[in-house]
Write a structure and sequence with these properties.
- With about 130 residues, this protein is an all-alpha fold.
- It has one domain.
- Helices cover about 80% and strands about 0% of the residues.
- It is built from 5 helices and no strands.
- Helix 4 packs antiparallel against helix 5.
- The longest helix has 28 residues.
- The radius of gyration is 18 Å and the shape is elongated.
Length: about 130
């Protein structure tokens, strides 16, 4: 039988909001840095070539990341944020899969995996904030 007593909150709503913004801020800094690196650093362009991606894809992906950052940080409707989170999930997951499929060492795919963990935590905290109050 299920209890009708309310479950105790692990974090207060205020602490949860602060944690959300800290995690999301770090996630956005990481994604912003990768967008910059993809546009400006030759070693990152070489890494894209190593993965078999055309050069134009690197540029498109960088601009898509920057648009996604704006969608996450701006006060916009939840549907747009949901699409941004979905795009980042596809981006990070694809990066890990691309590196693993070539047998790259953890140094190559670790950044994407760590970004994926930040993405997951940011998304879960965002969804918890979007839930209706009891």
């Amino acid at each position: 039988m299920e209890s009708t007593l309310p479950k105790p909150a692990v974090l207060s709503p205020r602490a949860e909001a602060i944690l959300y913004w800290v995690v999301t801020g770090v996630f956005c800094l990481q994604i912003g840095f990768t967008a910059y690196a993809q546009l400006r650093l030759p070693q990152v362009a070489q890494a894209f070539a190593h993965l078999g991606f055309p050069d134009y894809f690197r540029v498109e992906l960088s601009w898509a990341k920057l648009v996604g950052l704006v969608l996450l940080l701006a006060p916009l409707p939840a549907r747009l944020k949901e699409w941004a989170y979905a795009g980042f999930a596809i981006d990070v997951g694809s990066a890990v899969i691309a590196h693993l499929s070539l047998g790259d060492p953890p140094q190559a795919w670790g950044w994407a995996a760590a970004t994926g963990l930040l993405w997951a935590l940011s998304y879960v905290l965002w969804r918890r904030q979007a839930r209706p109050a009891p």
